[in-house]
Amino acid sequence: GTDSPVACISLEDVSFGYEEEKMVLEHLSFEIKTGEQVTMTGRTGAGKSTVFKLLLGLYRPQKGCVKIYGQDAYLLPDSIRRCLFGCVEQSFKRVPGTVLEQITLSDPMISREDAVEAAKLAGLHEVIAGMEQGYDTPCTDALFSQGQWQLLSIARAVAAKPSILLLDEITANLDVGTEQEVLYALRRAGENRTVVSISHRLYEKMGGRELVIG
Ligand code: ATP
Ligand code: MG
């Protein structure tokens, strides 16, 4: 009806292919409401990660429209996009610099306090604070364990306090002990946010609506 609030995310009859003659998504429509927790499932190659790229406005669909709070995703300014989305991927992309810079990516809009808050939410603050140089420790490949890198990527994703969290297969390589820690971090990170995850065992355990792609 007219008084229903605008959807957080909506796809309206979207068809998209990286190449014109080879469509990946065809006539895809769905809506995700603000604060909803949704898991996308579907066979490998179905186009789940492609949906994320469309949400992030990296491509424009050949047909239909991807909308974020009613605005065309492809036309959103980068500055707004960064406030809207936090992304966690399977592998952490380390940048040169300190632990702090891993979290802030040197974004002047993200304060040290924001970074500490994000690390606390991810369950990594104690570990970082326990280092001799704390958040100013130069970051090397050996500094964190595999699970801790994943927690660090969660901290990075929430540092700018995004309203939408996108999680792409993030627990695929974790052992059972670490998985639990990441699960707790994700629960905290997902509070008061819209969360769209791509199927992985962990998030399925957490429930949320299933959205089948393909
Ligand atoms: P998986 O579960 O394996 O991660 P997925 O559902 O995430 O799969 P996508 O990565 O979205 O699938 O890929 C969908 C299709 O688009 C595949 O056929 C893939 O080869 C193709 N594809 C993905 N990225 C590109 C690209 N940058 N250029 C061309 N084709 C691409
Ligand atoms: Mg994928």
TrEMBL record:
State where the protein is found.
Cell membrane
- Annotated ABC transporter domain residues: 9-214
Query: Where does the source fall among the domains of life?
Result: Bacteria
Name of this protein = ABC transporter ATP-binding protein/permease
Q: Which organism is it from?
A: Gallintestinimicrobium propionicum
Its organism's taxonomic lineage begins at: Bacteria, Bacillati, Bacillota, Clostridia, Lachnospirales
